[in-house]
Amino acid sequence: MSGNRYLLDTNAVVALLKGNTQLIQLLQSADWIGISIISQIEFLAFSELTQSDRQLFQQFLQRVEAVGLTASDAALIEKIIKIRQQYRLKLPDAVIAAIAVQRLASLVTADQAFAKVSPLTVITW
Q1: What pLDDT shows up at residue 2?
Q2: What is the three-class DSSP state of 121?
Q3: Which of 106, 111, 105 is nearest to 92 (CA)?
Q4: pLDDT at 111
Q5: Which one, 7, 32, 64, 70, has the greatest CB density within 10 A?
Q6: Is the alpha carbon torsion for 88, 91, 93, 99 positive or negative?
Q7: Is residue 2 within 8 Å of 100, Cβ to Cβ?
Q8: Residues 6+ away with beta carbon under 8 Å from 20
């Protein structure tokens, strides 16, 4: 896996938007940064989100790729199912892990549950 491709988990997005310097430094050398549609939904569904938070997130979305999930992407769906079954992750986490694996990206997260997914490169801060 390339060290310059990163998929951000929801907690990494929150930390980055709060100005986490460690994440900012990590991502400065990135060739590609993405988030899953799951992380986009999780972030925007947070009940205490302010209008300022929403605006900041919209600016952030213009700089990264939001990776969706479609019924026609059979390879991704199969990866999600295998990861969910093999590693017993929650379905949203299995989607995020499968997208990172498919996109050959390291997953940036504070969630230790991802560490057990062997085909995944996990970066924590």
Answers
A1: 45
A2: coil
A3: 111
A4: 96
A5: 7
A6: positive
A7: no
A8: 125
pLDDT at 34: 98
User: Exposed e or buried b for every residue in 52-85, given b needs 16+ CB within 10 A?
Assistant: ebeeebeebeeebeebeeeeeeeebeebbeebbe
Which amino acid is it at 27? L
Give the pair of three-digit tokens for residue 26.
């990590």
Q: What is the DSSP string of 18-54?
A: TT-HHHHHHHTT-SEEEEEHHHHHHHHT-TT--HHHH
Phi, psi torsion values for 6, nearest 5 degrees: -130, 135
Q: Give the 3-state secondary structure of residue 72.
A: coil
pLDDT at 125: 86
Give the dihedral sign, CA 21/24/28/29. Answer: positive
Q: Cβ-count burial of 20 within 10 angstroms (0-12 exposed, 13-18 middle, 19+ buried)? A: middle
Pairwise CA distance, residues 101 & 2, whole Å: 11
Q: Which mean pLDDT values do the consecutive 10-residue runs of the chain (125 residues) have?
A: 82 97 95 97 94 96 96 97 97 98 97 95 94
